[in-house]
Amino acid sequence: MESESITSVLKEKRIFKPNKGFVREAVIKSRAEYQRLCKQAEKDPEGFWGNLARELVWAKPWKKILEWKLPYAKWFVGGKINVSYNCLDRHLATFRKNKAALIWEGEPGDSRTLTFQDLHREVCKFGNVLKNLGVAKGDRVAIYLPMIPELPIAMLACARIGAIHSVIFGGFSALAVRDRVNDAGAVLVITADGGFRKGAVVTLKEKVDEALKETPSAQKTIVVKRTKSDIVMQKGRDFWWHDLMVGASDKCNAEPLDSEHPLFTLYTSGTTGKPKGVVHSTAGYLLGAMITARWVFDLSEIDTYWCTADIGWVTGHSYVLYGILANGVTSVMYEGAPTYPAPDRIWEIVEKYKVNVFYTAPTAIRALIKLGKEWPLRHDLSSLRLLGTVGEPINPEAWIWYHEVIGKKRCPIVDTWWQTETGAIMITPLPGAIPTKPGSATLPFPGISADVVDRNGKSVPLGSGGYLVMKKPWPSMLRGVWGDSERYQKQYWSDIPGMYFTGDGARRDKDGYFWVMGRVDDVINVAGHRLGTMEIESALVSHPLVAEAAVVGCPDEIKGTGIVAFVTLALGNPPGDKLKDVLKAHVAKEIGQIARPDEIRFAENLPKTRSGKIMRRLLRDIAAGQETVGDTTTLEDYTVLAKLRQEED
Ligand code: WTA
Q1: Cα–Cα distance, 426 to 418 (Å, whole number)
Q2: How far apart are CA 552 and CA 524, in angstroms?
Q3: Where are the beta strands (DSSP E) in 455-542?
Q4: How many whole angstroms from 489 Cα to the centroid of ligand 1?
Q5: pLDDT number for residue 442
Q6: Where are the domains of the chain?
Q7: Is the CB–ligand 1 distance for residue 418 below 6 Å?
Q8: What CATH class has 84-255?
């Protein structure tokens, strides 16, 4: 990290206040109420979180709210609790017993609804299945499943018996599965005969077979029959889910677990090639996921809520599953591709289930923009009352499209900033209380001590860019990196003394709003000015002909770093040299000459991770004319790289 501050040039002046009708019904209704909560949390953080935690059902009360020995926090020390109990059993004594917990839609059009009672029964049975196979408290269980109901059932069953789940995204390769299983020392892999995506079958079991050749700890699998594909079941090693469930009892005690017992590990990539297993706790994580879900998504008893994220990512853990069910709210889950069989599948599902709250990623929004607004316009989206985004900065033009075409200018948008490591949303508008500005995640959640600082940890003045940090521990923070405390210390607690460093650059405007500029390693230094690549991208995307853009730095003899922009055009627009000049001029106009791209390259597609993040690292190599040396195991479509290289020739 370098010490000079980051030059931020994005200027966005539009501001949107929540409408009165929304405010009247909102969970948090005013800026004053938000500020009151912030003040309470500031004055007495332990009291603040402790009060909220009392709503959960505890098997044994805690003795101490927080024990903080930097960089290790323990929350609700001495308490015992069970996450599955709090997501399920707690609701069974209320009218929610027969309320839908999960509404699931398969890609081929099949569907399943599980009430809280149904889900509870399945979870208890599967908890017994795990125990019968010898899985014990503290054991790690790898889950490599498509987005089918068995995925949340398996997770909640692990949580019930105290096994630590480690969900591996269904798009990962056999090698990635092997490495994750080995790193966690998992004793069992739960998988399926396949999953449906874009009308085809995604194979899973074959990859597990391949992985299991080199996973000494894991020598058993449980296989869900989903696609009826032809797979090999190895006797004594592979067991069908449905066979094991037949004889399983539906009585399974929710194990009282230490507050700090790990609930799960989840692998995420860092700056090095080796993925790290982020560890989350039981009580603190549950509290964070539950409270943020309620206040940010403004959840009420009658809401039907849909988060489009795959459960293989943290967003799915916290906001398809735990945070939503802990509130007793109905969660919609969809198996397949958002544009299959037609580009309006998403909107069809919204209309079918009358979804009220919808949470997705900017990359999905941009993809949908590219397909044209006639698709959403075919559907009745009037059930929607709140929209959310997560995963990367949303460029203001995409924000406005989301607001106008999907939200019909009626629904507030919550742009939520957080990370796998934070467990729960950290910077976000509370939709009834905080006016929004397109592209800004606005303000910290009450109790979250976010700041923008320089290298030494000193707050930078409003308006200047710097490093996004957290100054105090929070309940849902990661508890470490699985098996690697050194990496935990080094990655998060070493760059800036005494604080958690997020890896992101940010700026606060004169109203204190946070503008996240992306990863600090996505920041480029052009002629002594540091620019967030996202800001240039945002300028490019604001041009009507541009669908998506990725900007990287490239060695430049004179300026140190030059700016190379990879641009995907909106459908039907032919690329050409003249357009390159137009776009360069457009960026210069939007931001200034300093940000004018030196080179524009048109590309049909950009290389992305399976969670939709553009892999700038790969683009940097291409821009510099180098062979890619880094890890590409998370790349979604390998052919994109080859095509980008061809375009060079
Ligand atoms: C980025 C996803 C801007 C950021 C929950 C962060 C965002 C990383 C936003 C974490 C947002 C996430 N605005 N940037 N609203 N949300 N990010 O671990 O760079 O997959 O550090 O967690 O995504 O990604 P992760």
Answers
A1: 5
A2: 7
A3: 465-470, 480-481, 500-508, 514-519, 523-526, 529-532
A4: 20
A5: 98
A6: 20-82+277-516, 84-255, 523-648
A7: yes
A8: alpha beta
**Widest CA span in the chain:** 73
Distance 637 CA to ligand 1 centre (A): 21
Q: Summarize pLDDT for 314-351 with one digit per residue, the tens.
A: 999 999 999 999 999 999 999 999 999 999 999 999 99
467 CB within 6 A, ligand 1: no
Ligand 1 pocket member 518 (CB < 6 A): yes
Please state the rounded mean pLDDT for residues 351-359: 98
Contacts of 601 (CB under 8 A, 6+ apart): 564, 565, 566, 567, 644, 647, 648
Write the pLDDT tens digit of every residue in 5-62.
455 556 678 899 999 999 999 999 999 999 999 999 999 999 999 999 999 999 999 9
Report the relative pairing of strands 480-481 and 465-470 from DSSP bridges. Answer: unpaired
**DSSP state, residue 594:** G
Query: DSSP secondary-structure letter at 414?
Result: E
Label residues 379-407 b or e (16+ Cβ within 10 Å = b).
eebeebbbbbbbbbbbbbbbbbbbbebbb
What Cα–Cα distance (Å) separates residue 24 from each residue in 18, 27, 376, 407, 616? Answer: 10, 9, 28, 18, 43
Distance between Cα 159 and ligand 1 center (Å): 26
- Backbone φ/ψ region at 398: left (φ over 0), alpha (ψ -120 to 50), beta: alpha
Which pLDDT value is given to residue 270?
Answer: 53
Q: What is the pLDDT of residues 547-598, one digit of tens each?
A: 989 898 887 766 667 899 999 998 888 888 999 999 999 988 777 777 889 9
Q: Is the CB of residue 517 below 6 angstroms from any atom belonging to ligand 1?
A: no
* Nearest Cα residue to 156 out of 396, 324, 41, 275: 324
- The owner of tokens 């099949």 is 110
E-state strands within 212-270: 221-224, 238-240, 257-258, 264-268
Q: Where are the beta strands (DSSP E) in 225-368?
A: 238-240, 257-258, 264-268, 276-280, 304-307, 330-334, 357-360
Question: What pLDDT is stored for residue 521 in this prediction?
Answer: 60
Q: Kindly state if the Cβ of 504 falls inside 6 Å of ligand 1.
A: yes
Asked whether 395 lines ligand 1 (CB < 6 A), one says: no
Judge whether 427 and 418 are in contact, CB under 8 Å. yes
Provide the token pair at 83: 């996450």
CB 514 within 8 A of CB 443: yes
CA of 242 from ligand 1 middle (Å) equals 37
**CATH architecture of structural domain 523-648:** 2-Layer Sandwich (3.30)
What is the average pLDDT score of the chain?
A: 91
Fold matches, 84-255 and 523-648: no
What's domain 20-82+277-516's superfamily in CATH? ANL, N-terminal domain (3.40.50.12780)
User: pTM for this one?
Assistant: 0.85
User: In this predicted model, which residue has the larger pLDDT, 291 or 267?
Assistant: 291
Task: Identify the band that residue 273 occupies on the pLDDT scale cut at 50, 70 and 90.
Answer: very low
In this structure, the residue with its CA closest to atom 5 of ligand 1 is 419
Span from the CA of 388 to the centroid of ligand 1 (angstroms): 13
Q: Using a 6 Å cutoff on CB, does residue 419 contact ligand 1?
A: yes
Specify the residue for token string 């989206």.
381
